[in-house]
Amino acid sequence: MPRYVRPRSDAHLERIVNAFGNLTRVAIIGYLASNGPATRGEVASGLEIGVATAKHNLQLLADEGVVMQDPPASEERSGMRVRYGLVTVEVEQRYAELGEALGLKSIQG
After folding, report:
1. Cα–Cα distance between 18 and 75 in angstroms, integer?
2. pTM recorded for the entire structure
3. Pairing of strands 83-86, 38-39
4. Would you tell me how many other CB atoms lie within 10 Å of the CB of residue 31?
5. What is the 3-state secondary structure (H, E, C) of the chain?
6. Rounded CA separation 53/93 (Å)
7. What backbone phi and psi angles, to 5 degrees, belong to 16?
8. 53: Cβ–Cβ under 8 A, 6 or more apart, which residues?
9. pLDDT tens for the 109 residues of the chain, in order
10. End-to-end CA distance of the chain, in Å?
């Protein structure tokens, strides 16, 4: 059985890859950046993906701190629609760190 090979890299790169290393998550980030806060149904409809796919990836992005939930998961939200908004500062930080990891000079100018 082949061995899983992991290149040597800084541990902080995992959080960048978790957010940007999946086409669906990148599309969701782009959708929220363009359209503002949205429910998972609105995201699914806007990206023409399944609601379950949107829900799964939005939860992963929320766990990573890239999107925020309103109301937050820590509050009772029985019957309430959860809206997801982009944590722009977090996305910008990870984007800059990705550029540094790739050996690019400042990509924000």
Report:
1. 25
2. 0.80
3. antiparallel
4. 20
5. CCCCCCCCCCCCHHHHHHHHCCHHHHHHHHHHHHHCCEEHHHHHHHHCCCHHHHHHHHHHHHHHCCEEEECCCCCCCCCCCCEEEECHHHHHHHHHHHHHHCCCCCCCC
6. 26
7. -70, -45
8. 24, 44
9. 667 666 666 677 888 888 888 999 999 999 999 999 999 999 999 999 999 999 999 999 999 999 999 876 666 656 668 899 999 999 999 999 888 888 886 555 5
10. 46
AA letter at 41: G
Q: How many residues does the structure list for the chain?
A: 109
What is the C-alpha to C-alpha distance for residues 89 and 98, in angstroms, rounded to an integer?
14
The pair of structure tokens assigned to 49 is 């993906």
Q: At which residue do the structure tokens 């939930």 appear?
A: 69
